[in-house]
Amino acid sequence: MAKLTNAGFMLTAGLLSGCANPYPLPIVSVSEEEAVIRGDNNARILNPAWMKGKSYRGLNAAQTMPDLLLNLDIYHTLYSNQYDALVNTMNTADGATVLGGIWGVAGALTGTKAWMYQGAGVAGVSALYTDHYQIKVQSENYYKASEAMRCMYNVVGSMPNGVELSPEGFRTVNIAINDVTSKLLRVQRDVVLAQPDLDRLKKALLLPTPTPVDKTAMKAFTEDKVDDEVLPRIEKCVSEF
């Protein structure tokens, strides 16, 4: 306990010493081993306890539609929960309630997901650490990343059962997911607000806009035609992050 107390005072002193550079919080991630278990017929299903894990090796690339939807759901949930946790931290500081204080920062540095900022803090430190760690910027980046994943989930989820992307289509969507996770990692490390890739967005907007089709009609599509229907919408989701 004495060591923790000393570490807390040292961290407080560091924040109060005039350090102006924002410090990136640990970036939440997820691994296949913690988030996915095997169910009937060896199908990948969500591990109910996955949010308690701390490994960061990423999910396996999806090769089927159920796997693709599962991956998108996991990333959306992960980033959405982290956004909510950081917003709660800001609200705590803005309300002048020292719920997190210096122990909130110490807890954040452990890298656990959906950090709970709690414990007895030092009066006046809450607002200081939210500024120092640029909590608002970092929370907004998680929100934008979660929205990108949700957008892609809605695109894929609108496809009728039995309709599949081509192997190249799966590869394209897996790359799109990786683009979002990689960009989030980059902007969080630099502690800057994510901005849409204007060149990529422009190209996405210039792509032929697919005409919404009846799900029954889509079942008659070839894989290439399914790609033409789905991938431009996926590209737009990613380019807006």
Characterise the protein shown here:
The protein is mostly helical. The protein has one domain. The protein has ten helices and two strands. It has a two-stranded antiparallel sheet. α3 packs antiparallel against α6 and α4 (101-108) runs parallel beside α5 (125-132).
Summarize, please.
With 241 residues, this protein is mainly alpha-helical. It has helices spanning 2-16, 32-35, 65-94, 101-108, 125-132, 135-157, 167-190, 198-206, 215-218, 223-239, and strands at 36-38, 44-46.
Number of helices: 10
Domains, number: 1
Q: Kindly estimate the percentage of residues that lie in beta strands according to DSSP.
A: under 5%
Rg result: 21 Å
How many β strands by DSSP? 2
The N- to C-terminal Cα distance equals 43 Å
What's the overall average pLDDT, rounded?
A: 76
- The outline comes out as globular
- List the secondary-structure elements in sequence, H or E: HHEEHHHHHHHH
Largest sheet: 2 strands, antiparallel
- Secondary structure class reads mainly alpha
Low-pLDDT residue spans: 1-20, 95-112, 114-126
Largest sheet, spatial ordering of strands: 1-2
Helix amount, in percent?
55-70%
